[in-house]
Amino acid sequence: MAGRSTGLPTQKQVIELLDGEFVRAGYEIEDVLIDARTQPPRITVIADGDHPLDLDIVAELARSASALLDGLDSDAPYVLEVTSPGVDRPLTTEKHFRRAHGRKVDAELGDGTTVTGRLGQVSDGAVDLVVRDRGDWAVRRVPLDQIVKAVVQVEFSPPKPRELELAGAAGTEAGA
User: Domain 11-83 falls in which CATH fold?
Assistant: First the structure.
């Protein structure tokens, strides 16, 4: 077939091709990683949204993405993976904090201190953190521009009901 390309698509091409499909499903493409060193090469699409990715959604997005990528003018084989950013991704934007609502985080503040708390409401450039204060739960309002680094913590036991209530996450699967 004359004129067919044999190379992999670029990161930009993948994002442009898949963005509309992901947005329709309620997700944003956070990043696309293309590893041409593996055989076959691996295309990883990292997506996030206001609702967590579950296995059914990942499968649906992967099928859609695969069909769109297969329609490109390329015969290069590839392995496609659709995934979420993972808990080790630092929270860097207001939407990251909003999407992690109800989750426990470690936050390093601009003054060099570290605070561990459960993410509550995010508004007006600040986040409510539910923290332990003198043996009880309290809400601490922290401006986002004072947070140098924040990372979601993996939890192995369920959070306390009062902690979830203060975070505004009662009845959610905050630790899941």
Answer: GMP Synthetase; Chain A, domain 3 (3.30.300)
